[in-house]
Amino acid sequence: MNSTAPPPPPPPSAPFPPPPAPGAIGMNALAPRKQLKHMPGVKTRQLQWQKLNANHIGSTVWKLGTSAEKEEELEALLDKEGIFNRMEQVFAQKVVASKRAAPKERRQEISIIDSRKAYNISIAVLAKCKHISFKEFKKKILAVDEKFCTEVLLKNLLVNAPSHDEMGKLSVFLKTASEEDLASLSKPDAFCAEIISIDRFKERITNMLFVATFNERITQLGKNMNNVMDASTNLKESQAVRELLNIILMIGNFLNGTNFQGGAFGVRIGSINKLVDTRASSNDTTLLHFVCTMIEEKFPSINETLLKDLELCGEACR
């Protein structure tokens, strides 16, 4: 009797995987971090906000207020406008060295006239005539524009006009210089180069200044003449001045009583200035101070009226 061995038992089946942890399905379905196409290329400063995860925005404005398409459009717009690059520069933890274009080499200005004169022209003339070109300035001078050619401007032009030597150097430069050199000429020199083309420039400005100040000078001259006449009349008719002169004559004759200068019937008016040169023995006062003190103490009537009679003398002396 033939007997066979029984077949081996089948291998045990693989065990079932363990059940997922609670909430694991939801976490896998939602990305833990929003994906952005643009990231800073440098380390930037942090915005200290309170972050919400994806599973916490279900009914908030962050979920309901926008869509993925709009977010992509906004991100593309910010990138196109250079906002992200600008933020890298502004909010980088380390200052990002901005790429600046290499400055073009600037030609040195060419100056011919005196540096001090050039400075005065810039301040006194060019600074007040910024709104017009040099050619227009020249036209106004030639046209004798009274509104433009004021007394102050004409005086500044006359005082700061280029000398004959400077005019000669400018003329030679204008004839021989290249276009680049002409463009490099400093503003005061370029201004002088324009005005020296006016025939008899200094003589013209002098005559224009005379015309501009003529009426004012005539008016002032009339006032000065009136002041001199009024002051002379007051001095001539002042009783206080006569009494003061008599006092000075008397004390002078007293001091000179023993010498040739004494016994004078009168003195030149200019001799009154010598009172301050006659000093006391103690050298601490002068005859002028002595006379003033005496008038104040002993002759109050002269003291009161003398200053009133001399009021116009100050204006007449100018």
Automatic annotation (TrEMBL):
GO BP field: actin nucleation
UniProt-listed Pfam families: FH2
Extent of Pro residues compositional bias: 1-22
Region feature (Disordered): 1-25
Molecular function terms, GO-annotated: microtubule binding
UniProt domain FH2: residue ranges: 33-318
A GO cellular component entry from the record: actin filament
Protein name: FH2 domain-containing protein
Source organism of this protein record: Rhizopus stolonifer (Rhizopus nigricans)
